[in-house]
Amino acid sequence: MTATPARKRRRPLITGGVSLVAIAVATLAIVGYVWGPAAAIVFTGSPHYPFPPTPQKYAKDVVRAAGLAGIYASSDEFAPARKDALEQVKGASSYEGTYGPLREVVKAAGGKHSDILPPGSESDEGAAPAPPTVVPRGDIAIATVPEVSRHDDSQGYANRLTDGILAHARCGAVVDLRGNGGGDMGPMLAGLSPLVPDGVALSFVGRGRTADVTVNGNAVTGGGTAVTTHGGKRQVPVAVLVDASTASSAEATMLAFRGLESSRSFGVPTAGYASANIAVDLHDGATMLLTTAKDKDRTGEEFAEDPIAPDVASHDAEADALSWLEEQGCSPA
Q1: Residue 184 in contact with residue 225, Cβ under 8 Å?
Q2: Residue 136: CB atoms within 10 Å
Q3: pLDDT tens digit sequence for 221-257
């Protein structure tokens, strides 16, 4: 028997015996499962699943996240890369089987600084990270700033730099970023905070938004792990040393000094990865690195995939830096 129109109007929340509220809840659950992990990747740095995803679902969420946040996701290259990747993963029987196609689409969305790293590849097991060092050279502090990962002791790393600078930078400082391949910018810049004036040190320029990295005393926010050290400032001239292996967060740290009257950089052009990444821990322990923004220094110049030329080209950067500091009245003897 067919219900009359009047009866239909009396029961507006029932369709086929199922509550529209229940349908709405089910619909939200489906939408949440389809889009939720991709959104979680962008906003929390990790997808969240109620149960293990299939390799195809795993891949689709990475592709969606890349499209949402990748700096080049609106380019002509991304759409065909997305299509090819989704086609290639249809037959994947494991998460590992999706890495190759996903790597291509992530690079299309984020450029050369983006990647898919297999589980365990972010750190070398058994290898302790090199600690930063600060040694005196007369009244000058020589601060060697190595790369540091987000899994290392950020606070201890930063404290070591700050304490050494405050102890030894009586007239000037050398910040040595040579060989620093990047990692977590937060402890690098916090450790060097005695040498960086308060305010915006640099900015990240993404698709439709700009985010600032800010120094306030010995606290750094907006760039990597938020870290605070203590002890105040040293208003001294700073020489920054870079080479072709200075990359990523180390390039951003270099830019934090760029444009300051009391600072000069020495060496050869950097590696050309001056852009901001998000690091996403995927369901199986792999990591997606996705470039979401370019670096912009305090002069307004933007950088991304081209090497950054130092202020002074030099093949003996430390000697030339010490000579410049001597001209500023700092004796290295």
Answers
A1: yes
A2: 14
A3: 998 899 999 999 999 999 999 999 999 999 999 999 9
Residue 325: both structure tokens together: 């500091």
Q: How far apart are CA 195 and CA 175, in angstroms?
A: 10
pLDDT tens-digit map of 265-310: 999 999 999 999 888 889 999 999 999 999 999 999 999 999 999 9
CATH architecture assignment, domain 133-277+292-327 = Alpha-Beta Complex (3.90)
| Domain edges within the chain | 18-111, 133-277+292-327
Asked if 170 and 181 count as a contact pair (C-beta separation under 8 A), the reply is: no
Q: What is the pTM of this model?
A: 0.82
Other C-beta atoms lying within 10 Å of the C-beta of residue 172 = 28
How many Cα atoms are found within 13 Å in the side-chain-facing hemisphere of 228?
4
Q: What is the SS3 assignment for 137? A: strand
**Rounded distance, CA 262 to CA 279, Å?**
34
DSSP state of 139: T
